[in-house]
Amino acid sequence: MVLIPLQRTPGPLLVLLLLCLFAAPAKPVQADPATDFARYLTGRKGVRLIHARILPMTGDRTTGLIADGWLDVGADGRILALGPMSSQPRTSSPTLDCDGRWLTPGLIDANTILGLSGHPVTGITQEQNENSERSLPQLRVIDGINPLDRAIPRVRASGITTVYVNPGEETLISGQGALIKLRPSANIADLVLKAPAALHLNLGEAPKNTWGGKGGPGTRMGSAAVLRMELTAARNWLRGSEKHVREQAQYEAKVAKLGEGEEPPMPPAPRDIDLKKQVLAAALQGDLPVICSAHRQDDILTALRITSEFGIRPILLHATAAWQILPEIGDAQVPLLLGPIRTGPNTFETAAARLDNAALVAAAGLPFAIQTSGALNVRALPHEAAWAVSGGLPADLALLAITRYPAEIFGVADRIGSLTPGLAADLVLWDGHPLETKSRARYVIIEGQLVNDAALFEPFPDGPGW
């Protein structure tokens, strides 16, 4: 074995390497944020989001901004707690640095045809507006929604996590809508948040134009008359059902008192099942909310008049001319699903359209939400809210109108719509303020699980942005 003696003086190359090693500051090893988000938000694991600009949407007329905050997501997919970083408690959960991004609840579109009007738009992908009859209250949108429609992931990637799906507006009574979560699933049952969520009555040009060439009604008077006829028939059927229940109770009481050997009385005749009248009866009893579609001020007033006659408190859809009759709407104290905000005065029906409609409705103290009425264009929901801001609506209220306000109108504010402990962790991390058109939803989370990462999202192959 040959021993090679070590040099007592380092060579020039070794000196250079040592100088570089000790002169350069040590850089901490940082995990890729996208990798961390995918790791900790895929599966049921608790996690803490830190250093986020949080918009909780819990105030009456303010978003309640937390400029630098944290939020805990539990293993069950619910929000555990949140607050400013200065009061951050200890945690054993992984922490994900949001790096100052804006954190909001998942957005809610209060009126869409998503999943019914399929993408690409061709005749065979259109399932809304069944018009084989002028009154179809028994229809249910969950029987027509395609959870694998190509527009749904695109909408989800834009920060919208919940949508209301409308059966259509071309029939006087068009059916029952549903509130659905945009979870990735092939099964509509996995998406349903509330179904049925409302029954749809439609006034104005759409049903008039549809039925004018099919034997009527072809006028606004005719439309109102048919609605009254349908609701009156349902009320009479309901009274008959209540009478049948009383007769059945009386029969059972008599049978219970029969002595030994006594012959029982004849039972009441069985009640026929009528799917149409059952649905309308549920609306008359207040068990099923009623949405009335109307643009013009006279159609809005007709909707209020008819529903008042039958003891129904409606929800107004579109209400493009609401600003013209705010005192009357205020007296009725009904909620409004306003939009699309960019509806223009380009038809006789929408001649009264103006950008400050939402601002005037808000100033009157009326409950409202903002909606798109779209399918693929549901992804423009924050832009619709921004247009309302350009018309004078305060930005705080515009954000509430696409988060907590629609949740309140549909009766699910105890489940979604705000960043409140106990509610579902439906979250969106934005690269900028949600109402800025250049902002994008960087991460979209539904019930604590990452469902979209903008950096990894693949656009439709048939063109950029589609």
> What are the segments in which pLDDT stays under 50 over at least 5 consecutive residues?
1-8, 17-31
Helical stretch tally: 12
How much of the residues is beta strand, in percent?
15-25%
Distance between the ends: 73 Å
Summarize the helices and strands and which ones pair or pack:
Elements: H1 12-23, H2 33-41, E1 47-54, E2 66-73, E3 79-84, E4 95-97, E5 102-105, E6 107-112, H3 151-156, E7 160-165, E8 173-181, E9 192-202, H4 205-212, H5 220-256, H6 275-284, E10 290-294, H7 297-309, E11 315-318, H8 326-332, E12 336-338, H9 357-363, E13 368-370, H10 381-390, H11 395-400, H12 404-409, E14 427-430, E15 441-446, E16 449-453
Helix pairs in contact: 5-6, 5-7
Describe this structure in words.
- With 466 residues, the protein is of the alpha/beta class.
- The chain is built from 12 helices and 16 strands.
- The strands form 2 sheets. Strands 1, 2, 3, 4, 5, 14, 15 and 16 form an 8-stranded mixed beta sheet that branches.
- α5 packs across α6 (275-284) and α5 (220-256) packs parallel to α7 (297-309).
- The longest helix is centred in the middle third of the chain and has 37 residues, at 220-256.
Short structural description:
Helices cover about 30% and strands about 20% of the residues. With about 475 residues, it is of the alpha/beta class.
Tags for this entry?
single chain; alpha/beta; eight-stranded mixed sheet; 16 strands; disordered N terminus
